[in-house]
Amino acid sequence: MERLEFIKTVAALPILTGTGMKLNALNKLIETNSETKQMPVLFIGHGNPMNAIEENTFTKEMRVLGNKITKPKAILMISAHWETKGTFVTAQEKPPTIHDFGGFPQALFDVQYPAPGSKWLATETQSTINKTAVELSEKWGLDHGCWSVLKNIYPQAEIPVIQLSIDYTKDAQYHYDLAKQLAVLRKKGVLIIGSGNMVHNLGMVAWDKFKEPSYGYDWALEASHKFKTHILEGNHNALINYKNLGKEVQLAVPSAEHYLPLLYALAQKEENEKITFFNDVAIAGSLTMTSVIIQET
Fold first, then answer.
1. Mean pLDDT for the chain?
2. Residue range 70-84, pLDDT digits in tens
3. Using an 8 Å Cβ cutoff, are 240 and 248 in contact?
4. What residues does 277 pair with on adjacent strands?
5. Which pLDDT band, with edges at 50, 70 and 90, does 210 fall under?
6. What's the farthest any 2 CA atoms get from each other in the chain?
7. Residue 130 burial by CB count (10 A; 0-12/13-18/19+): exposed, middle or buried?
8. pLDDT at 16
9. CA-CA distances (angstroms) from residue 213 to 57, 207, 218, 270, 280?
């Protein structure tokens, strides 16, 4: 909101009974309309849900990240684990913690991430996207692609969080173009996070190698190298058309849901911003934990 427009709006506020009520209205106006320093954008390789309760190098790096970047007003998460026909955003006041997996210890099912929702961010996201109709949803919550990451970055669960779904009927170009429309939210204190894995082929996981610190098949390492090279060179067109990048990448991305959150992050990058990788290792042969920070230099 421009300064003059803001002043006019404040002047037009009705005189409310009691100073506290007027201050609350003013604070709400500032919260929803004021611009801030542009927030960074993240892509997090979330990997095993057990990262939510285990202590390892990946979780340590996520905690460091949470202490390093500017604390956001709210978080918009694009998780590989919420696929829908159409586009939705969560709109609950208190989104539930969803345990969308099986076969793990009870301790993981006991985890709760009681972050508040944000009706403001849900409606702001809805109005920001004009590429498609965005519906408000109270049928989802925070899935493990979201809370297993945020539990390490922001363990206090005090920052409002919403999720944006991935329309599985649309191609990579569509999602990249839609993601670009979200960029304006970064100047409103919103941290945009894509959560997935660049290389993610569960059908070829070496389960006996899961506890090794770093193990990747040759094709997985080659696919990872291709992805990172194109990311650093800013060759987003190649990444959008990833199916043309060779057999290694076809093995790395047998289905799109864990890869598309990367495009949601890359679509936000501006010319003056730098890219940094962290947790850049392969695990269990066919997965990579490579994560990305995009921020102003």
1. 90
2. 999 999 999 999 999
3. no
4. 292
5. confident
6. 69
7. exposed
8. 40
9. 9, 13, 16, 34, 11
Query: pLDDT value at position 286?
Result: 97
Distance CA 222, CA 9 (A): 55
Please tell me the distance from the alpha carbon of residue 99 to that of residue 78, in angstroms, as a whole number: 17
R_g over Cα of the chain: 20
Of 29-38, 134-143, 262-271, minimum mean pLDDT range: 29-38
CATH no. for 36-296: 3.40.830.10
Both tokens of 233, joined, read 């060179």
Domain positions in the chain: 1-34, 36-296
What pLDDT does 34 receive? Answer: 59
User: Do 268 and 180 form a contact (C-beta atoms < 8 A)?
Assistant: yes
242 and 261 Cβ atoms separated by less than 8 Å: no
pLDDT tens by residue, 11-57: 444 444 444 443 344 344 434 455 678 999 999 999 999 999 999 99
Rounded distance between C-alpha atoms, residue 184 and residue 170, angstroms: 23
Among 113, 163, 160, 115, which Cα is nearest to 138's?
Answer: 163
* Per-position b or e across 40-58, b if 16+ CB within 10 A of its CB: bbbbbbbbbbebbbeeeeb
pLDDT at 4: 39
